[in-house]
Structures are given as C-alpha cells and as structure tokens.
Backbone:
C-alpha cells in the first residue's frame, strides 16, 4: 500500500480455523496479518477483473466470430514464431 494513504480499520468476522491458517502463513512469509489479508483481497479483485475481461472477450467473439481466412493466417504465423520462443 502506498505510504501516506489513509487506511480505514474494518472489522470482519472470520472463522477460527481460517484465522489460524492466515496467521501461520503470514508468519511464514514474514508479513503482518493485515498485510496478508490486504494482499489476498487485491489478488481476489484482480482475479475477478480477469474473469470479467475473459468473459467480455468471449462474448465479443460470439457476436463477431473470427473469419476462417484470418484464423488460418494466424495459425501459419504462429507456427513459424512459436518454435523460436524460449519457454
């Protein structure tokens, strides 16, 4: 979190078992409980945003599918490029 930003303190009910797992894992990665939970929330939000973008991408292709000629050209280009990639 950026320094100097105001933070709000919130209360969130959480099961004992989950809290123990959070505390244990936060200790292993040398973070505070709050930092661990903030990062988990950021990752969850990013995951939801990614799913939304994927859904919009798929809907776009359903509305306007790729033309066969374009797909074949893409396959030809990728078949030349991908073998050169260092995975």
Residues:
């Amino acid at each position: 979190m950026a320094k100097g930003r105001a933070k709000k303190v919130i209360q969130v009910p959480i099961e004992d078992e989950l809290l123990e797992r959070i505390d244990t894992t936060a200790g292993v990665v040398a973070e505070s409980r709050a930092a661990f939970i903030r990062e988990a929330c950021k990752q969850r939000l990013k995951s939801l945003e990614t799913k939304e973008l994927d859904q919009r991408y798929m809907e776009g292709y359903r509305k306007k599918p790729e033309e066969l000629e374009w797909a074949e050209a893409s396959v030809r280009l990728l078949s030349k490029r991908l073998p050169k990639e260092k995975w």
The CA atoms of residues 49 and 55 lie 10 Å apart. The two ends are 33 Å apart (CA to CA).
